[in-house]
Amino acid sequence: MRAAVLHEIGQDKLEVLDDVEAVGFGPGKVKLRIRATGLCHSDVSAMNGVLPQPAPFIPGHEGAGEVLDVGDGVTGLSAGDRVLVCWLPACGECPSCRRGQTQLCLAGFMNAGTPNFKRPGGDVFGFAGTGTFTEEVVVGAGCAVPIPDDVPFEIAALIGCGVTTGLGAAINTAKVEAGSSVAVIGCGGVGISTIQGARVQGAAQIIAVDPVASRREAALRFGATEALSPDEFADAKQRVTAGEGFDYVFEVVGKSATARTAYEFTRRGGTLCIVGAGAMDDNFQVNMFELFFDEKRILPSMYGGGDVLRSYERAIALWRAGRIDLESMITHRVRLDGINDALDQMRTGESLRTCIEL
């Protein structure tokens, strides 16, 4: 079986191999044939060590495909079903799940420490317990979510992570109000989805901020009212909000420096929403006086901040209704052999989302 493998954390290239085997199939598990997978920046963050992940590993967590086989005890799924991959399945039993905060369930994270592939040289892990840069993968049944027949695999793959994360940040976590002012810092795939979520919610001004010109141009197509480089942001704050700051600012980069900028550009009493996944040693700081005096809400948003199954259904409904554009988010398509070119395009900002077709 072919798969793209990272041998050591810190390497910037993947090796496409044909001696990989998906392992772990048994009770409660399903085997999937991956048909399409998106390249998400979290994959790059795991490769460079920003996000913790044991190696060697197969990146990829934004995938969709078909069920090949189901293990004993699996209900609601059968061979041939079309599914998307949920990299953070809810166990339904832990305190977070019982409180209705299924996006905080830790069961999926526990899977990341168990190898679900092997090669002649030893075990291979799948990123976030999945690993979709491969032809086949074995995952827990909760990771395989059925999708309707009218949803293409490449669209379902995007919904499996980036779209759900961005839409949910605006709709579930921040609860953007109609007529409000919004700024989004970082306009890759998740940032573009956040912009679309703010538009769906009825925001009056949506300011997109990104250093890459092509991403700024894309942001305008997806609903931003203005798209600016970082050095133009201060002028927009003065011009759009009379210097007060924006009602909502979304940080979709995952760095303390941009989070601090986002905080400063949020109005007093406004909402800063942290969407980007950053490093454990990158500390965001506010002083105790401003924290008290400005009364700004600081809201992290994990995987869209809500029940992911409901979020998937909502994304499909909005897409069907033409309220969000998912097809145009896919700016590049490659086969697995082109994965390293796709990585380079993501790092330079050339691509919004690359679909890897398997």
How would you classify the helix and strand content by structural class? alpha/beta
Oligomer: single chain
- What percent strand? 25-35%
| Morphology call | globular
Gyration radius, to the nearest Å? 20 Å
- Number of DSSP strands? 19
Proportion in helices:
25-40%
What is the average per-residue confidence, as pLDDT, rounded to a whole number? 96
Largest sheet: 7 strands, mixed
Give the termini distance in whole angstroms. Answer: 11 Å
Structure description:
The protein is an alpha/beta fold and 358 residues long. It has helices at 41-47, 95-98, 107-111, 153-159, 162-173, 189-201, 213-221, 233-241, 256-264, 288-294, 308-320, 339-348; strands at residues 3-5, 15-17, 21-22, 29-38, 57-58, 62-70, 82-85, 117-119, 122-126, 136-140, 144-146, 181-185, 205-209, 226-228, 246-251, 266-274, 297-300, 330-335, 353-357. The strands form four sheets. Strands 4, 6, 7, 10, 11, 18 and 19 form a seven-stranded mixed β-sheet that branches. α5 packs across α11 (308-320). The longest helix is centred in the middle third of the chain and has 13 residues, at 189-201.
